[in-house]
């Protein structure tokens, strides 16, 4: 099969002149040959930039990270010493690594679960008949344009232990002040609030798009059968949203497990990479950054990166398999159509 | 699909089963909107006063008159003009190349037939899940080897084109570019690149514009990699902000004046193009 413009087979070009009778052995002019080569090779040329860029700055560094993780190598070393899997063995008994792992997962859960619930609720609100619907949609997307750095600075200020507005309000309402930076769980909550503030509106729009795509006859049929609004929401809308929700979960998994900027800027000691005085909100990526560029231990940092890499791929795969299973078990319920 | 405003007015339930919004719906949405705007406003508020307002029991909720003097201090403390220029160069270049290469690759994957097309596209999709951020250590070593550490090209080159861009443009091109048009252009003697330029590109312009805005914002807000590879003398806006904050004594009026200044350009872009961004996110959600 020669390459060609991908058209329906057997269709005659409508505007072409009737083909002249073919000579027994067609001799192509250089112009025709050029055209054949053009059709054959241009597609590869067009996709080449992506594969070159990905290969050089994506795939190669990730693979080379695995190789580096087998060495003991300082930032300024040229060679480094082969240590095999020692870095990984050290990692397993490194309490700081386990702390950062727990922190990462904790912040991830605190930011994903409430976010999806609120996003679905917000999408349901936006799915009502509003005046100026686009205006509201633009409004809820507003936080998305904030840069993470600006956001980190603003929220570090709002959650400040002494003069922060959040503590001021808590005190005004008669609660105790909370040390949002020193308390481990409170710091996770504060960082999760940042993440949620930025992403909830964005995810609500994705869910809203999926809600709009639900065929109207499904709802009409249920209404005729006497289903009320909340019944329809839980029995029709939510099950049909499942693929979209899982898409949202997967994308926030890949991003959320690499969280870096928020914990870095949340530190009461600005510029520090410790994630709090006892690493109470240091994440894995922040630990990797600290090990590579502050401690300058490239081999060990590579081992951290590679463990996180595998973790992300495994969780993404679990999510993917879960999607397929949920999608297939969900099918009979869709029989309502 | 983008939801069109319901044109048919019915009293109980509209086409999608949605009721006419009640007051409490507006109330909740307004509360949400205030929550969305507040951190931006707070940042401006602190920037327009001096840091002593933060020690007051009940902070004032109206801006003071010190914003310009605080902003001037930002320019004195860090090379802010330079960082703005750098961010513009980096984000502008990355946006142009990403749109160009993504539309080209999207055109090839969507409309041209070639050996290995499906396998190659599967690779593109698979790379979406690869957290390339975790490769920064070898990437930094490579940049140092080239002598690019501290230079803008170190931030530009790794972001020339993205998998998500190729994926989006392929999905969109499949839907909007008819084969008949490509065929007609070929019959008229257009080379492939002219088919791309005269047929494909005009048709995919809305999606390309959205991809451009998305890329610009992502690049403008990027932090980890610029932090690794650039330095204090040649920063992007985000690095300049971080630098403002990392003194031992944080002067919040100064720092938040910086965040306000850095947010204003992107806020303007958002106000002008917000509708298209919303439409793009919602379209991408359904098609992807």
UniProtKB/TrEMBL annotation, chain A:
Q: Where in the cell is it found?
A: Cell membrane
UniProt xrefs under InterPro entries? ABC_transporter_permease, MetI-like, MetI-like_sf
Ranges where the ABC transmembrane type-1 domain occurs: 101-319
Q: From the UniProt entry, list the residue stretches annotated as the region Disordered.
A: 1-26
Asked whether the keyword rRNA-binding is assigned, the reply is: no
Q: Which SUPFAM superfamilies match?
A: MetI-like
Family matches, as CDD domains: TM_PBP2
Q: How does it sit in the membrane?
A: Multi-pass membrane protein
BP GO terms, sorted = transmembrane transport
Which cellular component terms (GO) are annotated to the entry?
plasma membrane
Membrane-crossing residues? 44-67, 105-126, 138-159, 185-210, 240-260, 298-322
Q: Which UniProt keywords apply?
A: Cell membrane, Membrane, Transmembrane, Transmembrane helix, Transport
Similarity comment text for this entry: Belongs to the binding-protein-dependent transport system permease family.
Q: What is this protein called?
A: ABC transporter permease
From TrEMBL, chain B:
Protein's UniProt name: Sugar ABC transporter permease
Matching Gene3D superfamilies, A to Z? MetI-like
Q: Which UniProt keywords apply?
A: Cell membrane, Membrane, Transmembrane, Transmembrane helix, Transport
| Pfam families cross-referenced by the UniProt entry | BPD_transp_1
Q: Which organism is it from?
A: Actinophytocola xinjiangensis
Matching InterPro entries, A to Z? Answer: MetI-like (IPR000515), MetI-like_sf (IPR035906)
Q: Where in the cell is it found?
A: Cell membrane
Question: What is one cellular component GO term in this UniProt entry?
Answer: plasma membrane
Query: Which family does the record claim for this protein?
Result: Belongs to the binding-protein-dependent transport system permease family.
Which terms under GO biological process does the entry name? transmembrane transport
Indicate the transmembrane segments per the record.
21-44, 88-110, 119-140, 152-169, 195-217, 252-273
Q: What is its main location?
A: membrane
KW Transmembrane (keyword) present: yes
Please state every residue range assigned to the domain named ABC transmembrane type-1.
84-273
Topology in the membrane?
Answer: Multi-pass membrane protein
């Amino acid at each position: 099969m020669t390459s060609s413009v991908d058209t329906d087979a057997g269709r005659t070009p409508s505007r072409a002149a009737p083909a002249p009778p073919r000579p027994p052995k067609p001799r192509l002019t250089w112009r025709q040959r050029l055209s054949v080569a053009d059709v054959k090779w241009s597609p590869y040329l067009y996709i080449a930039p992506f594969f070159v860029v990905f290969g050089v700055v994506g795939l190669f560094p990730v693979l080379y990270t695995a190789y580096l993780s087998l060495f003991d190598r300082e930032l300024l070393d040229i060679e480094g010493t082969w240590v095999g899997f020692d870095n990984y063995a050290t990692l397993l008994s490194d309490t700081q690594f386990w702390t950062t792992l727990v922190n990462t997962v904790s912040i991830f859960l605190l930011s994903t679960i409430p976010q999806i619930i609120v996003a679905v609720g917000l999408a349901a609100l936006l799915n009502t008949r509003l005046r100026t619907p686009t205006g509201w949609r633009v409004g809820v997307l507003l936080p998305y344009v904030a840069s993470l750095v600006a956001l980190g600075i603003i929220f570090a200020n709002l959650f400040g232990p002494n003069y922060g507005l959040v503590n001021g309000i808590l005190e005004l309402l008669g609660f105790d002040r909370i040390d949002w930076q020193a308390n481990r769980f409170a710091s996770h909550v504060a960082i999760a609030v940042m993440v949620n503030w930025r992403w909830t509106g964005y995810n609500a729009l994705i869910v809203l798009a999926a809600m709009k795509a639900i065929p109207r006859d499904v709802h009409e049929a249920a209404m005729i059968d006497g289903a009320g609004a909340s019944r329809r929401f839980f029995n029709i809308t939510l099950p049909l949203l499942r693929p979209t929700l899982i898409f949202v979960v997967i994308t926030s998994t890949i991003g959320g497990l690499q969280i870096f900027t928020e914990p870095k800027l949340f530190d009461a000691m600005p510029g520090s990479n410790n994630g709090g005085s006892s690493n109470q909100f240091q994440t894995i990526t922040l630990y990797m950054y600290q090990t590579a560029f502050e401690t300058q231990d490239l081999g060990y940092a590579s081992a951290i990166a590679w463990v996180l890499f595998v973790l992300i791929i495994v969780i993404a795969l679990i999510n993917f398999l879960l999607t397929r299973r949920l999608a297939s078990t969900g099918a009979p319920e869709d029989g309502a159509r | 699909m983008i939801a069109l405003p319901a044109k048919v007015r019915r009293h109980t339930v509209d086409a999608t089963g949605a009721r006419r919004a009640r007051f409490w719906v507006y109330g909740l949405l307004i509360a949400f909107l205030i929550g969305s705007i507040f951190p931006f406003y707070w940042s401006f508020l602190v920037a327009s006063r001096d840091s002593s307002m933060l020690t007051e029991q009940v902070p004032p909720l109206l801006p003071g008159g010190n914003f310009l003097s605080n902003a001037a201090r930002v320019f004195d403390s860090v090379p802010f003009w330079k960082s703005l220029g750098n961010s513009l160069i980096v984000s502008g270049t990355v946006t142009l190349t990403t749109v160009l290469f993504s539309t080209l690759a999207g055109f090839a994957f969507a409309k041209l037939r070639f050996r290995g097309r499906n396998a190659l596209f599967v690779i593109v999709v698979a790379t979406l899940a690869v957290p390339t951020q975790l490769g920064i250590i070898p990437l930094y070593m490579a940049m140092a080897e080239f002598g690019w550490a501290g230079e803008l090209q170190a931030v530009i080159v790794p972001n020339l084109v993205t998998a998500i861009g190729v994926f989006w443009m392929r999905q969109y091109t499949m839907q909007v570019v008819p084969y008949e048009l490509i065929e007609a252009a070929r019959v008229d003697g257009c080379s492939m690149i002219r088919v791309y330029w005269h047929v494909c590109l005009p048709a995919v312009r809305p999606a390309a514009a959205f991809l451009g805005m998305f890329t610009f914002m992502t690049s403008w807000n990027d932090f980890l990699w610029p932090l690794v590879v650039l330095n204090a003398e040649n920063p992007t806006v985000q690095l300049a902000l971080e630098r403002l904050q990392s003194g031992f004594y944080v002067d919040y009026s100064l720092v938040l004046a910086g965040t306000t200044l850095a947010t204003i350009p992107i806020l303007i872009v958002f106000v002008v193009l917000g509708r298209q961004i919303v439409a793009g996110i919602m379209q991408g959600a359904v098609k992807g």
